Structures
1.
Amino acid sequence: QKEVEQDPGPLSVPEGAIVSLNCTYSNSAFQYFMWYRQYSRKGPELLMYTYSSGNKEDGRFTAQVDKSSKYISLFIRDSQPSDSATYLCAMSAFDTGTASKLTFGTGTRLQVTL
Amino acid sequence: NAGVTQTPKFQVLKTGQSMTLQCAQDMNHNSMYWYRQDPGMGLRLIYYSASEGTTDKGEVPNGYNVSRLNKREFSLRLESAAPSQTSVYFCASSGGASGGWTQETQYFGPGTRLLVL
C-alpha cells in the first residue's frame, strides 16, 4: 500500500462548480501538507501549503487537513477552465537540519468544461 | 528571477548512450532534488543534495549519478541509458536546513522529456 493515495481521475466538472480533491495517507508523522498544480507538459507549481490540522484559504482555493482521519482536501470554488490541470498532493514529516523529503500522491487530473 | 531552469527540454537517446541533464536555480536555495515522473507512478526521488558538497540517494537511484557543481547547479548523469529510463525528469530546489516552510517547500523546473530507444 502506498503511503499517499490519490484518485487519478479524470474528474470532469462544469465551469462554476465546486471541486473537491482529496488524498489519504498512512504515515502519522506527516506534518506539512502541500498541493501542487501541474499543467500539461509543465513542471509542478506550488499552490498551497498547510501545517498540521485545520483550514487555509487563498482566494478560490481552500486546503483542509484532518490528521485524525489522515485525510487532506483541496476545494476549488467557482472553477474555471484555467483550473484544468493535474493536482498533486505532497506531504512531509519535518526533520530539522535536513533537506525536505516530500511524499507525493500520483495526482488527480481535473477538467473544467465550458 | 528565472527560478529553476533545466536543459535540455527534450532529448532522444539510443540504448547505451550517455547524457547529462543540467539544472540551475537562482533562488539561493541550499537543497536541490532530481525526480522522475512516470504515468501512474507519480514523482519519484532519484537523488538529492541537502547542501553544497553533499549528495544522497533517493527512492530510485540505480542507473544515475549526480554532481552538485556549486550552490546553483545540480546535474544528473545517465552513464548508459536504458529504455526503462524513458521518463520526464524534474529538478527542484528548496531553502534548505533552516527549518519550517523554507525547508519543506520545493520549487520545480519545467522538466526534461527523455526518450530512450
2.
Amino acid sequence: GENVEQHPSTLSVQEGDSAVIKCTYSDSASNYFPWYKQELGKRPQLIIDIRSNVGEKKDQRIAVTLNKTAKHFSLHITETQPEDSAVYFCAASIMGSGTYKYIFGTGTRLKVLA
Amino acid sequence: EAGVTQSPTHLIKTRGQQATLRCSPISGHTSVYWYQQALGLGLQFLLWYDEGEERNRGNFPPRFSGRQFPNYSSELNVNALELEDSALYLCASSRTSDSPLHFGNGTRLTVT
C-alpha cells in the first residue's frame, strides 16, 4: 500500500550544525508535502510545505527540497538551535482527490546539543 | 485567529466505558480530521469529516465513531474502551479538503 518512509528516526546534532531529514513516498500522484514540528507535549505545527510544481522552498533557516522523479523530499535546518529540538513529521498528500490521502512518516526525533 | 480547540485536555476512563472527545475547528474551516498518537509513535488516521459527512475512516474498529455538527465542530466517540486505546487524540482542521491541516493540542485519554 501507499506509505511514507522517514529517516532517520533519531538525530542528534551540535548547536549551529545543520540537520537533514529525508522522506520517500510511494504514490506518484502525491502533490503536496508538508512538514510538521511537534515539541514535547504540544500539538504538531506546520512549519513548511511544498507542492509538486516546485523543487525547493525556503523560510529563514528551514528549507524543503523535492525530487519528484525519485519520489523523495527532505527537510533542511541550518544553524540549529536548542529550540529546534522536537519530533518532525513529513507527510505526502494528494490534493484534489476527494478522498483522504494524507500519509504521515513515522517521525524523526531531533536533539540539538548545546 | 483562534486555533483548533479540543476538550477535555485529559480524560481518564476505565476499561469498557465510553469516551467522548470534542473538537472545534478554526473559524471558516469545514474539514475535521481525527488522529490517534500512541506514546512515542506516529500519527494514525482515524476519521475525516467534511461538510457534515464522514468522508474517510482509517483502519480502526467500528467502536471508534464520530460526527460533525452543522457548525463544523466534531465529536469522537470511543465505545467499549480497551487499555490500548490510551493515547493522545489529535484533531485537525482545514479550510477545504485541499488545504493544509492545522492541529489542536489534543486530548490525552488514559484507560485504566
3.
Amino acid sequence: EDKVVQSPLSLVVHEGDTVTLNCSYEVTNFRSLLWYKQEKKAPTFLFMLTSSGIEKKSGRLSSILDKKELFSILNITATQTGDSAVYLCAAPNNRKLIWGLGTSLAVNP
Amino acid sequence: ETGVTQTPRHLVMGMTNKKSLKCEQHLGHNAMYWYKQSAKKPLELMFVYSLEERVENNSVPSRFSPECPNSSHLFLHLHTLQPEDSALYLCASSQVGPDPLGYTFGSGTRLTVV
C-alpha cells in the first residue's frame, strides 16, 4: 500500500534555530513530491520536487529530493515565530495524492 | 484568499439537520476535490471531480453527497451526520495533466456535529 511518512510528528524550537523536516515515501509510479504549510486552515503550496538532488529554495526554506533513498527533507533556517505551522508532505500515485500526517512545528520567541 | 473559496467557515449542526458546504475556484482548474481532515489522521480524500465528472468516491458514507454543477463550483451536501463526522472539510482544485502542479486548497469549513 502506498504511504508517506513524516518525522518528527512535532517539534519545538527557539527563534533563530534551523530545523530539518523529513518525509519518506513508498508510492507507485512516483513522479513528484509536494510540500505544504498549514497554519490555521488552508494548506498552502511550498514546493514540488521531481528531480533527485536538485534543491528548491524560497527564502529561508529549501527542500531536496533523494529518489534513490525515497525521501525528501525540508529545511528552515533562522526560524521565526511565523514559521509555526503543520508542514505536510504528499506524493501522487496514479489515482490520488498520498498524504503524510504532517510535522507540527512550534517556534518559540 | 487562495483562489479557492469555501463557505461557511464554521458550521455547527445537529444530527438531524441538512446542510451544504460550498466551494468555488477562480483558477481555471479542471479538477476539484473534497478532503476530510481529522485530528491525528492524514488528509482523507473523499471525492474527486475531473472535468465535472466524479472520478473517485473513497467509500464515503451516503450521508455525504457531492455535487459539481460546473468546473468552478463544488458542493458537499450533508444529512443525518454523526458526531464522528466533526472535522475540517477542505476543498481543493488542480489542473489535471501529465505533470500536475500542487493543489490549491480553500480555507476549509470547520464542522461540528452535535
4.
Amino acid sequence: DSGVTQTPKHLITATGQRVTLRCSPRSGDLSVYWYQQSLDQGLQFLIQYYNGEERAKGNILERFSAQQFPDLHSELNLSSLELGDSALYFCASSVPQQGALNYGYTFGSGTRLTVV
Amino acid sequence: GESVGLHLPTLSVQEGDNSIINCAYSNSASDYFIWYKQESGKGPQFIIDIRSNMDKRQGQRVTVLLNKTVKHLSLQIAATQPGDSAVYFCVSGGIKAAGNKLTFGGGTRVLVKP
C-alpha cells in the first residue's frame, strides 16, 4: 500500500456519460497530480493541485476538470466521454512544503476507465 | 519544452544477466532524476533517484548513472530476475519540490527470459 488511495479501481461507462475519479493523497502531502495512461503508452500529465489550488496544467481536455478539497483529496471529472478516453488514470502525491527537496511522487494503483 | 526520452522501447534479458536501460533528457536545468518501475496493472513505483551533484548512486541490485555532459541517465539492474519484468520510466525535474512537475519518459519494457 503506497498510501495514495484511488477509487474506484474499475469503471465501465457509456459514451457521452460523466464520471468522477477520486484520490486521497499520502498523509501530509499537499500536492496531487493526475496522469492518464492509455494502453501500452507512457504517462501523460493532466493537472496538478497544491494545497487546493491549481498549480500546473498539462494535456488536459476541456471536457476534463479537477479540484482539490480542503481535506486535500482530489477529484478528476471526465464528461462527454468518448471511446478514446478509455485508459488508466493515476493520481500521485508528493512532498508538501514550499521549498522542500523533491523526493518524487507516490502513485496510487490507478482507476481503469473503460468507455463502451 | 523538456523531453525525456528512452533509447530502446523493449529490452529482452536472460534471467541472471545484467540489464542496462538508457535515457536521454533535454533540459540541462534538470537537477533531479528518478527511475520508476511499473508492473502490469499497477501504479509506478519509485526505484532510485539521483541528484545532479552526483554521477552514480547504488541501491539494492540497481545502480543509476548520470552523465550531465551528454544529458544521459542509465539504470543498471544486476542479476535480473523474473520480478524485474516491467516498464521502466526515467523522470527528470527540479530539486525543489513545491510546484514541480516531473517529466516522464516514454518507458522501456524489460522482459526477463527464464
